[in-house]
Amino acid sequence: MIEDLEENWSKPCGCCEGWWACEGVVRLSKWQGLQIIALGPTFLQWDHLRFICVIVSLKFLASGSSFFSRVVTMEPMACGWTDAPHSMGTTIMAVEYDGGVIMGADSRTTTGVYVANRASDKITQLTDNVYICRSGSAADSQVVSDYVRYFLNQHTIQLGRPATVKTASTLVKELSYQNKSFLETGLIVGGWDKYEGGSVYGIPLGGTLLRLPFATGGSGSSYLYGFLDQAWKPNMTQDEAEKLVVKSISLAIARDGASGGVVRTVTINEKGVQRKFHPGDKLELFYEEIPPRPSSLLAKS
Questions:
Q1: What does the UniProt keyword field contain (predicted)?
Q2: I need a surface site. Which of 151, 190, 262, 286 has the fewest CB within 10 A?
Q3: pLDDT one-digit tens code per residue, 210-221
């Protein structure tokens, strides 16, 4: 029976113009009594529309092992971006200055080449004095942030004092490193505490922990390293550091298709936290950038 199924599984059938999976799945479902899961048109009348079915591996069934499923898209010109996970193909950064830290990020969240959210907030609060910039898989970075926020809350209650930036960064590092085979996220932790003042820690993919005077991450960061090497200087003022962060992210937006939208900044120092919003049409334009045009809908209103 298995040999017969494998033979038929590899043959094209007439109902779907040469697609190899159709007849084998039908025969397998009759033999095993399995239900075919179909999203979209009926199995024999898909007519070049997108169609998904679940195929059970014959080899796993023959060996008696737990079966293995995989999803096949039966479409001549399949577009992978429709199934891509939410990713913050991103530009994030943080800079130490004399007295605190400034963190910044763009706001574009993508699903493959599709912009799923043009105004997302990638700078997440962990405690009153510590924030985290998220890049990579949106789901992975959010779940790490949620776990660390919970642990830091418990830590603060037990010790009776606010958690330090180093403590928060170490927790992020531990979660990232212990789950490095499963997580696809790069993170930057920044904040202020009475022991070290303003400090920035980078936790790239894999879970390494690095104390840095400035850190950048995401798909747009590759356009910034040379610029930051030249533009950053120690003991900057708050105004100089903020201008550097906004200009750096604007440069990345100009070159990186996965970065865009607006620029958000968070300033953390002894006085507290200050958030700022920089609209996309107010950002500095660079070489070959097309100036934004006012929307016709806004003009009518």
A1: Cytoplasm, Hydrolase, Nucleus, Protease, Proteasome, Threonine protease
A2: 286
A3: 999 999 999 999
Q: Of 107-116, 220-229, 241-250, 287-296, where does mean pLDDT reach its minimum?
A: 287-296
Q: pTM of the entire structure? A: 0.70
User: What angle separates helix 138-159 from helix 165-178, to the nearest 10 degrees?
Assistant: 130
Q: Could you tell me the two tokens for 89?
A: 């193909």
Residue 87 in 3-state DSSP?
Answer: strand
Q: Are residues 271 and 253 in the same domain?
A: yes
The answer to whether the beta carbons of residues 18 and 12 sit under 8 Å apart is: yes
Among 49, 78, 107, which residue terminates a domain? 78
- Nearest Cα neighbor of 144 from 158, 126, 127 is 126
Using the Cα atoms of residue 135, residue 136, residue 137 and residue 141 in order, give the sign of their dihedral: negative
Residue 144 has pLDDT above 80, yes or no: yes
Beta strand 210-212 with 197-203 is antiparallel
Please give the Cα distance from 172 to 149 (Å, whole number). Answer: 10
Residues 229 and 90 in one domain: yes
CA 23 remoteness from chain centre: 39
Residue 150 structural domain: 86-282
CA neighbor of 117 nearest in space, from 7, 16, 258: 258
In a domain, 228, yes or no: yes
Residues labelled as active-site residues: 90
**272 and 155 in a common domain:** yes
Residue 19 has pLDDT above 80, yes or no: no
H runs (alpha helix) in 33-115: 58-63
Long-range contacts formed by 179-184: CB under 8 A, 24+ apart:
180/205, 180/206, 180/207, 182/140, 183/136, 183/137, 183/140, 183/144, 184/136, 184/137, 184/140
The structural domain count of the chain equals 2
| Secondary structure of 124-143 in HEC code, one letter for each residue | EECCCCEEEEEEEEHHHHHH
Query: Angle CA(175)–CA(177)–CA(183) in degrees, nearest 5?
Result: 75
Is the residue at 291 inside a domain?
no
